């Protein structure tokens, strides 16, 4: 798997075909067994039932797939273009970076339950909300690794550019863009299932057709084979996109990763002004919020302004009650999202590390990991809650799955960024795989791991609110759905603001830890 | 009544044709486009509207109606208040809170006279009266707690003696034996259970004092004042469509399935649902006064039920004036 791995024996070519097939066989077998155990409970359809459903409803399914896939692809394109544009601006004008990242994060943290109906009113009938939600589901997960990648170049290369008297533009084209490619592809791979999920959720806002629409119908009608056929089709498409992007990445990024030497720079931490940056971001966000509502002339009945939320939370006579309700719901949600998030991170990093030590395990682990994440959470959430119960286990598991996959992919890419020369040095001293892992690969993985850990914060919030909304009917996700159905838009917007702020704070907390660790292990990421 | 409208419109059409509509290459009688926001995904639940659309009941009244599908993340109130839709389908229990929040809505038509909430159980251990709920496990969305509370208050049942199991909106927990009954709608989960081969028994909450108009058509006060003709034509088309629906529910189900081939609708399910919603939509009141009608007494009982649910409602939430013009009261 590694660029410097020097043992591509002829048998590997056979293995390339056998391993994925073996993995698939193991998954199918486990699935069939599980379906037999759960027969008659209306939870899980067996692979055979799914195949039969697909054979009988090929036309229906392919029309729905074409619709959703088209919207997901458009959203994928727009979202990733936006990510590249944002990252380019942030690198060319580093002053803007903190504010840009903050705003991008805030928008990414807006809960789907709330953004869906507003987009529908803005766009009217059509594909607008589906494409927009797909784009919003991906831009951030591409932006973050891309920013990491754009900085993952040795300072000597920048010095070379500067010695020719060239500026930031040339740096970007000749050094940063090349260094960022592997990170960009990692982001795109994570984006593929996310775009599909975004398009499906977009269809919940009243779309005429598509796989999300079929999912709602199938779940209501107890049509278990249809539900799983939808989940499998969505997963298959996401896996195909994941594999295709991976193949493209391998074809385009042949150069081995460079040695990046940067001196630990703890002074860099003090140079940033976190409070000032946060303040600027907040003011800009409020201005954008207010400006957007005024520009689109949205009625204050459902499109609340910053002042309305302030009043609902602090000034109104029932403000205390609003706060109590909201905090109680948040507390319920926190009990689920924190363990799920930590478990997902640990599993992702752990499995990626394990695969480096025991590459053979990849045959089963990789397809399983990809398919777990590719099954859209909107189809699995209600079923998983039925299967694992309404207690914390079901929700925590789903949150962990959502965090696990991006972490796993990012860490795998990170581990591959270990410079060959340094690995060679260790090898020449007969250092074993564990020593190489600890001294070279793990430090090389850290920037990617922390980028994933940061992205995992909004991803886990998205997961938990979707599960609560469609599955358990508890916590802040359910509170938002209920508020929307009862036209309690003050409560809905207060929830949006609080959820977004909590997500941003969580993100900032991870970034704080990251800055302290990376200033020792990957100083180029911290230096400005 | 509609005779005078037609005459007036044909006059207008003749006039505008003379003024150069031909030069624009448009038909002499231009259609007004309006949108009607449905409350859920397309299904036979709205089949009367599909019939109105297919039979030209709206076209002959000068309307080009776009039926907007709903969904789990598509509340009805925002498109109606922002003017995307002229009219929307709501319920008293959703419209009243919206009005309390400042939305200028009026209920102008009641398509479902009887509230569709039921307690569904299986024929082996049926729940036929509210008193049967005592000691049983009921599966329901926590959001529907006030509904159960209202039913208990109306029938002197102590809600503490019922075991509440929070479930999603699906029949699975009942079929797997995790609960003894479900709080759901007459027209969806019981139908799904029958299609899956189970034998559900349903107890209609409306038969035990829980009176709330469902599938109410709402419009803003501004539309009622300024776009009255369009609303009236919209409702006239609805009445024509639902009258045809009642005559042949199987045909309505077939039309629905054929009209939306991309939704994966099952014909048998749709036929059964179409049949089951007839007694909820038509009553002696609607037979006597015309479809969509309601009485002052039922408004008073709705207000009582809403009070049990914790909402203060006044009779001016309902506006029967357009319906009175149509049915000539």
TrEMBL record, chain A:
GO biological process entries: transmembrane transport
Family from the record: Belongs to the binding-protein-dependent transport system permease family.
Protein name, as recorded: ABC-type nitrate/sulfonate/bicarbonate transport system, permease component
Entry keyword set: Cell membrane, Membrane, Transmembrane, Transmembrane helix, Transport
GO cellular component: plasma membrane
Residue spans crossing the bilayer: 21-48, 68-93, 100-119, 131-153, 173-196, 228-253, 274-296, 336-358, 370-389, 395-415, 446-471, 491-513
Cellular localisation: Cell membrane
The species this protein was found in: Roseivivax sediminis
Top-level taxon of the source organism: Bacteria
Keyword flag Transmembrane helix: yes
Domain called ABC transmembrane type-1: residue spans: 330-514
Pfam families recorded: BPD_transp_1 (PF00528)
Membrane topology according to the record: Multi-pass membrane protein
InterPro entries named in the record: MetI-like, MetI-like_sf
Automatic annotation (TrEMBL), chain B:
Annotated SsuA/THI5-like domain residues: 45-250
Pfam family, one: NMT1
GO BP annotations listed: thiamine biosynthetic process
Signal peptide per UniProt: 1-30
InterPro entries on file: NMT1/THI5, SsuA/THI5, TAT_signal
Summary of the function given for this chain in its UniProt record: Responsible for the formation of the pyrimidine heterocycle in the thiamine biosynthesis pathway. Catalyzes the formation of hydroxymethylpyrimidine phosphate (HMP-P) from histidine and pyridoxal phosphate (PLP). The protein uses PLP and the active site histidine to form HMP-P, generating an inactive enzyme. The enzyme can only undergo a single turnover, which suggests it is a suicide enzyme.
Family note: Belongs to the NMT1/THI5 family.
Name of the protein in question: Thiamine pyrimidine synthase
Pathway noted in the entry: Cofactor biosynthesis; thiamine diphosphate biosynthesis
Subunit structure and binding partners: Homodimer.
Catalysed reaction, written as an equation: N(6)-(pyridoxal phosphate)-L-lysyl-[4-amino-5-hydroxymethyl-2-methylpyrimidine phosphate synthase] + L-histidyl-[4-amino-5-hydroxymethyl-2-methylpyrimidine phosphate synthase] + 2 Fe(3+) + 4 H2O = L-lysyl-[4-amino-5-hydroxymethyl-2-methylpyrimidine phosphate synthase] + (2S)-2-amino-5-hydroxy-4-oxopentanoyl-[4-amino-5-hydroxymethyl-2-methylpyrimidine phosphate synthase] + 4-amino-2-methyl-5-(phosphooxymethyl)pyrimidine + 3-oxopropanoate + 2 Fe(2+) + 2 H(+)
Keyword field: Iron, Metal-binding, Pyridoxal phosphate, Signal, Thiamine biosynthesis, Transferase
One function term, GO molecular function aspect: metal ion binding
Transferase in keyword set: yes
Entry annotated with the keyword Signal: yes
């Amino acid at each position: 798997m590694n660029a410097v791995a020097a043992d591509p024996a002829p048998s590997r070519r056979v293995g390339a075909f056998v391993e994925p097939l073996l993995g698939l066989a193991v998954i199918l077998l486990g699935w069939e067994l599980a379906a037999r155990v759960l027969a008659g409970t209306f939870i899980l359809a067996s692979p055979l039932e799914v195949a039969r459903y697909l054979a009988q409803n090929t036309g229906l399914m392919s029309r729905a797939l074409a619709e959703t896939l088209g919207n997901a692809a458009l959203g994928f394109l727009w979202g990733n273009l936006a990510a590249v544009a944002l990252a380019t601006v942030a690198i060319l004008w580093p002053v803007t970076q903190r504010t840009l990242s903050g705003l991008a994060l805030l928008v990414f943290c807006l809960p789907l339950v709330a953004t869906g109906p507003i987009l529908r009113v803005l766009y009217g009938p059509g594909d607008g909300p589906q494409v927009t939600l797909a784009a919003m589901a991906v831009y951030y997960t591409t932006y973050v690794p891309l920013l990491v990648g754009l900085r993952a170049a040795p300072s000597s290369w920048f010095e070379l550019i500067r010695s020719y008297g060239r500026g930031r533009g040339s740096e970007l084209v000749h050094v940063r863009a090349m260094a960022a490619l592997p990170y960009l592809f990692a982001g795109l791979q994570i984006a593929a299932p996310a775009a599909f999920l975004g398009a499906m959720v977009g269809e919940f806002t009243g779309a005429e057709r598509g796989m999300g629409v079929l999912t709602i119908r199938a779940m209501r009608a107890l049509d278990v084979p249809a539900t799983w056929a939808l989940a499998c089709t969505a997963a298959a498409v996401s896996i195909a996109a994941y594999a295709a992007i991976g193949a493209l990445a391998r074809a385009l990024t042949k150069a081995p990763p460079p040695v990046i030497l940067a001196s630990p720079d703890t002074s860099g931490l003090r140079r940033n002004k976190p409070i000032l940056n946060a303040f600027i971001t907040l003011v800009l966000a409020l201005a954008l919020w207010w400006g957007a509502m005024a520009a689109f002339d949205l009625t204050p009945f459902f499109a609340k302004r910053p002042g309305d939320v302030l009043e609902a939370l602090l000034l109104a006579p029932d403000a205390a009650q609003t706060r109590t309700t909201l905090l109680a719901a948040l507390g319920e949600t926190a009990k689920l999202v924190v363990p799920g998030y930590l478990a997902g991170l640990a599993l992702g990093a752990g499995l990626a590390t394990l695969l480096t030590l025991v590459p053979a395990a990849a045959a089963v682990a990789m397809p399983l990991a990809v398919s777990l994440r590719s099954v859209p959470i909107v189809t699995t959430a209600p079923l998983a809650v039925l299967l694992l119960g309404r207690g914390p286990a079901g929700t925590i598991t789903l949150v962990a799955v959502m965090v696990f996959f991006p972490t796993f992919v990012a860490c795998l890419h990170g581990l591959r960024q270990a410079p060959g020369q340094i690995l060679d040095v260790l090898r020449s001293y007969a250092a074993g795989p564990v020593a190489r892992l600890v001294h070279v690969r793990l430090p090389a993985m850290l920037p990617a791991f922390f980028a994933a850990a940061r992205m995992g914060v909004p991803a886990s919030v998205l997961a938990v609110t979707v599960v609560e909304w469609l599955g358990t009917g508890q916590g802040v996700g359910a509170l938002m759905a209920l508020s929307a159905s009862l036209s309690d838009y003050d409560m809905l917007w207060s929830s949006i603001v609080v959820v977004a702020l909590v997500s941003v704070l969580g993100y900032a907390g991870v970034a704080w830890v990251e800055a302290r660790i990376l200033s020792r292990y990957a100083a180029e990421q911290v230096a400005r | 009544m509609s005779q005078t409208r037609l005459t007036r419109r044909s006059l207008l059409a003749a006039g505008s044709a003379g003024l150069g509509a031909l030069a624009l290459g448009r038909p002499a009688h231009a259609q007004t486009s309006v949108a009607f926001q449905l409350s859920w995904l397309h299904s036979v639940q709205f089949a009367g509207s599909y019939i109105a659309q297919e039979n030209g009941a709206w076209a002959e009244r000068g309307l080009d109606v776009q039926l907007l599908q709903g969904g789990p993340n598509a509340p009805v109130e925002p498109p109606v208040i922002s003017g995307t839709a002229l009219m929307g389908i709501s319920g008293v229990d959703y419209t009243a809170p919206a009005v309390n929040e400042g939305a200028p809505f009026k209920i102008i038509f009641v398509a479902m006279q009887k509230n569709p909430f039921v307690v569904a159980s299986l024929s082996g251990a049926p729940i036929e009266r509210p008193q049967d709920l005592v000691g049983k496990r009921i599966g329901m969305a926590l959001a529907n707690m006030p509904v159960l509370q209202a039913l208990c208050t109306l029938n002197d049942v102590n809600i503490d003696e019922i075991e509440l199991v929070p479930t999603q909106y699906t029949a699975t927990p009942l079929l797997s034996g995790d609960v003894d009954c479900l709080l759901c709608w007459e027209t969806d989960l019981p139908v799904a259970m029958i299609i899956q081969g189970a034998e559900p028994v349903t107890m209609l909450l409306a038969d035990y004092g829980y009176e709330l108009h469902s599938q109410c058509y709402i419009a803003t006060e501004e539309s009622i004042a300024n776009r009255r003709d369009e609303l009236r034509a919209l409702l006239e088309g609805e009445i024509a469509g639902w009258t045809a629906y009642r005559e042949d529910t199987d045909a309505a189900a077939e039309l629905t399935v054929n009209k939306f081939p991309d939704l994966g609708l099952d014909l048998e399910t749709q036929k059964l649902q179409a049949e089951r919603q007839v007694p909820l939509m038509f009553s002696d009141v609607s037979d006597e006064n015309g479809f969509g009608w309601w009485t002052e007494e039922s408004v008073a009982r709705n207000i009582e039920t809403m009070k049990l649910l914790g909402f203060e409602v006044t009779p001016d939430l309902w506006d029967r004036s357009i319906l009175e013009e149509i049915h000539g009261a």
